[in-house]
Amino acid sequence: MTLQIKSLEQYNDVYKRSIEDPEGFWAEQGETFKWRKKWDKTLEWDFRKPDIKWFLGGKLNITENCLDRHLETRGDQVAIIWEPNNPDAPVKKYTYKELHAEVCKAANGLKAMGIGKGDRVCFYMPMVPELAIGILACARVGAIHSVVFAGFSATALADRIKDATCKVVICSDYNNRGAKNIPVKTVVDEAMTMGCDSIETVLVHRNTGGVVEWNSDLDQWWHEVIDNQSTDCEAEEMDAEDMLFILYTSGSTGKPKGVVHTCGGYMVYTTFSFKNVFQYNDGDIYWCTADIGWITGHSYIVYGPLAAGATTIMFEGIPTYPDAGRFWQVCEKHKVNQFYTAPTAIRALMAKGDQYVEGHDLSDLKTLGSVGEPINEEAWSWYNKKIGKGNCPIVDTWWQTETGGILITPLPNITDTKPCYASYPMPGIQPVLLDSDGNLVEGNNVEGLLAVKFPWPSMLRTTYGDHQRCKNTYFAMFDNHYFTGDGARRDEDGRYRIIGRVDDVINVSGHRMGTAEVENAINEHPNVVESAVVGYPHDIKGQGIYAYVIINQVVEDVDAFRKEVIKVVRREIGPIAKPDIIQIVSGLPKTRSGKIMRRILRKVASSDTSNLGDVSTLLNPEVVQEIIDNALV
Ligand code: WT7
Predict the structure, then answer these.
(1) Whose CA is nearest to atom 1 of ligand 1?
(2) pLDDT tens digits, residue range 124-151?
(3) Per-residue DSSP letters for 359-402?
C-alpha cells in the first residue's frame, strides 16, 4: 500500500527520512507496485549531463499497475466516470474490469495497425473516454503517446507530429464543447497536408457522428479496428527507464519541446503524490477538471488515480455550459470528494456571481485543489468560503510539465494553508532558492530563483530528439541543479510562494506560452516587420497577451488589421495564443546589441511607467515615449 501521511509529525519524519536516504525512501515506495522484475539499483544521476535513472533494471508495465493489479480487489469498482458536455446526456462509467477490457481491445487494435514498442502515437482528441483508453493502450503495447491539446491549430499539430515522427494519429470526428461542435478531423486533415510523412494511419473515433471527409489512403475508423478485438492483451514488458510519453510544452525560445517521461519513476511519483496531496481514500470520488492534453490530465486524471485504484471523473465540457453552475452541479451529481481545478476557472466563475453556487449541495467535498498559475487571494478566499464552506483545505499545488508530478503543496489537514502559498515541499523534493549568480539564498523571508538540487522519480529525462536542449534549458543555468524558470519567496516558516516565471514564458489561463512562439506567429503576417509580446495582468486569465508590432505600410483599417493578426496566430498556434491587445509602434526599444528591452514593454503593458529605469543607453530612446503615449491599457 502506498504510504499515506496522516499527521504533521509524520510529514516531518517522512520528509526528513526522504532527504537523508532518498534511495531507501523511494525504494520503499516502489515496493508497493507490481514489477515483472525488481530493479537492481534505485538511482543513478548526474545533472550535468543530465542523466537521471530511477529503478534501474526494473521491468514493468504501467497498465498492469493501473488496471490488472486492481482486478482482484476492485474489479467492479468504477475506475472512470465520464460526464458529458451535455448535462442531460448519459454518463458513462467504466469499472476497472471494463476499463481493462477496453484498453486490451484498443491495444490489440494498435498492434493490428502495426504499432509496437517504441513507436510514437499522436492523440488529437476531445475529453472522451477513448482518449484515456487510447493512451493506456499505447502504454500497454509499449508505444509512446504524444497527446496534443485539441485546441491547437493544424500547424501546431503538424509540428508536433513531425518532431516525434509519429506513425499514427488518433482523433475524433468532432468535439462537443459547450454550445459548439468543433470539427476535429478537419484539423487533422489539414495537418496531413503539411508534410507529416511519418503518419501511416489516421484513426478516427466516431464521437458526434457528424460528416467527415474520408481519405481512404490514411483513414480508418476506431470502431472498425478496435471493436472486435480480444479483451485480453498481454502487456509489453518495459524497462523502468523506457519512454512512457512525450508532452510538448513551451519555453522561452524556439518551438515547443517534447518533454519525455519514463515508465517506472513516473508511476511511483504520480501515485504517491496523488494519494497524499488529495488524501484520497477508498470509496472517494475524485475530480480533476483539466484536459488530458496537459500534464495535469496525464498525471492526475489518468495515471496517478488509476494506479492508486481511485474513481476518477473525466469531464467533456466547460465550466460555463450550460451555465456557470456546471462544476457545482457535477460535484453534487457525483458526490465529489476531491475537486482539482485552475485559478482561471475559479476567477471566471466567481465573476459570474454566487447565485450559480447557491442551491448546489457541495457537502461531500473534502479537499479543493488549485493548479497551473498563482491563485490570488481573492479567488482563494472565494473558493474557500463559497465552495469549501470554510472546511475544505485548499491545496495550491505547484509543479510543471517537466516535473511530472506535484512538488510543492500543502497536505490537507496535515500542513496548514495560507493564501497564495504553495507551501511545503513533498517528501523527496529538495527545493532551493538561488540568486542570479547561482549562490544559495539561505534562511527565511527571502526571495530567489527556484531550483531543485536532487532528483525525484518523475522528473523529465530529456527533450525528445534533442538532449542538448534539455541540458541548456534546465541544467545549464545553475551547476548541478534543475532550474524551474520560476521565482519564489520563502516566508518566515519556510513556506514557498511562487511569484511567477522569470523567463520569457507567460501563463494565460493556466496555459503556458513562449512569447517568442507568439511573436513568430505574428511575424507571419505579411504586413508585420517585427513584434514583441509580453504578458500583462488580466483579471480572469491571470496574464493576457500584449503584442507590440511594427508594420511595413500604413494600415487604413486598424481593427481589420488586428483581426488579421489574430487570425494568423490562430492558424499558427491556436486560439489560446491570440493577443488580447495589439499596439502598432514605429519601433521597439532596443539595446545597443539589438536586444529588445522587454522590461520596458512589460511595464507599459502593466500601466506601471513610473520607474522605467535608465533608457538613455537604448539605441532608440525616443520610441519609449511614443509607446507610452499610445499604450492601450
Ligand atoms: C508553470 C508550469 C503543472 C500543471 C499545470 C501547469 C506555473 C503551476 C502553479 C502554482 C503558481 C504555478 C509555474 C510553472 N504554475 N502551478 N500552484 N502556483 N504558479 O504546467 O504548463 O508546465 O506550467 O505554471 O510558473 O513553472 P505547465
Answers:
(1) 400
(2) 999 999 999 999 999 999 999 999 999 9
(3) T---TT--EEEEESSPPPHHHHHHIIIIITTT-S-EEEEB--GG
